[in-house]
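Design job #97: recover the sequence.
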């Protein structure tokens, strides 16, 4: 039996080499050199094309290259009886926490305004705001959100989180469920999205939800592009309701050359690299799942296919 690797954005050969070094003898097939599809019982994938995975009759488990699995579940022909595992990694959580802290601090320390002033050679003192007067709200208090929230509390920010289920994290007020979304949003001077993209969360940052934020709020989206209704965000920025946005993920990636986000004075664009799966850090957990599969043990870090994350 063999492991198939499919990705158009990672260095598939590097991943294959790292896997081979840890599991000598593992039969690894890197797309497009698949051989007999009947040989494939495991697949490590990122955004496979529609119907691709359904073409492997002996597939027993699928592993995502990353934390998110929306790019796999977007395939309506995904064989639903095949379990899927995802990456939950301290390195990834650390990278994401750095990204969130960096952009929260940019907002907090008014870097956008100072850069604007510098371009105009304007020496202007901006009144400071104490961190305790800012509330940072994190949508999605999972493996990534919880770590970012904790780091933000170290700076003295008020931190609130929103998730499906109630959380108990020291120093972080927990809101949960649809009913508490409005109460959560009303607090957030910065709204950070670290949700998975599911039918429930698609388009969650919309004109309605943004209107519930305090005037002058800032948005950081490192979840998925599909969380944001882009036209609504542009409208809120252009009407000075929001003070700015940092966006790492987009409805279409790479972000098209003519997209208004590229040149918008209030938007910071990063190319979907808030946090990356690093082969040397992540491969051990994939190897662990391959071994468990071979030994007939339950997989770890399994995705609940009924909720989509
Ligand atoms: P987790 O599955 O660990 O956490 C997801 C969180 O979202 C949970 O707290 C969950 O609530 C909450 N959630 C899900 N659905 C809802 C809903 N309908 N209403 C309220 N809360 C909800 O995921 P990770 O933290 O590991 O990753 C989150 C996402 O980050 C990924 O799915 C991916 O899209 C994105 N990502 C982006 C990267 C980048 O570089 N830009 C890198 C890595 C990931 P509960 O805890 O109650 O289940
Ligand atoms: C992920 C990502 O989901 O990098 O891991 O987006």
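Job complete. Output follows.
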């Amino acid at each position: 039996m063999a492991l198939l690797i499919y990705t158009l954005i990672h260095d598939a050969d590097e991943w294959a080499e790292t896997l081979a070094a840890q599991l000598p003898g593992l039969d690894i097939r890197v797309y497009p050199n698949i051989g007999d599809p009947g040989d494939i019982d495991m697949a490590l994938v990122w955004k496979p094309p529609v119907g691709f995975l359904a073409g492997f009759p002996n597939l027993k488990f699928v592993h995502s290259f990353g934390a998110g699995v929306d790019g796999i579940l977007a395939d309506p022909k995904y064989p639903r009886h095949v379990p899927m595992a995802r990456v939950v990694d301290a390195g990834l959580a650390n990278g994401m926490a750095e990204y969130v802290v960096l952009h929260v601090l940019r907002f907090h320390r008014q870097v956008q305004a100072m850069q604007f002033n510098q371009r105009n050679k304007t020496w202007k003192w901006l009144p400071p705001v104490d961190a305790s007067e800012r509330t940072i709200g994190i949508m999605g208090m999972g493996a990534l959100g919880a770590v970012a929230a904790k780091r933000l509390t170290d700076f003295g920010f008020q931190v609130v989180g929103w998730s499906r289920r109630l959380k108990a994290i020291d120093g972080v007020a927990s809101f949960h469920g649809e009913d508490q979304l409005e109460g959560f949003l009303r607090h957030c001077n910065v709204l950070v999205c670290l949700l998975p993209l599911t039918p429930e969360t698609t388009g969650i940052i919309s004109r309605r939800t943004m209107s519930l934020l305090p005037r002058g709020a800032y948005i950081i989206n490192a979840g998925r592009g599909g969380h944001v209704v882009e036209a609504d965000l542009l409208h809120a920025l252009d009407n000075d309701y929001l003070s700015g946005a940092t966006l790492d993920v987009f409805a279409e990636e790479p972000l098209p050359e003519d997209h208004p986000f590229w040149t918008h004075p209030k938007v910071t664009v990063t190319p979907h690299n808030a946090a990356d799966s690093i082969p040397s850090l992540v491969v051990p957990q994939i190897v662990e799942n391959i071994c468990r599969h071979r030994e007939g043990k339950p997989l770890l870090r399994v995705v609940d296919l009924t909720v989509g994350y």
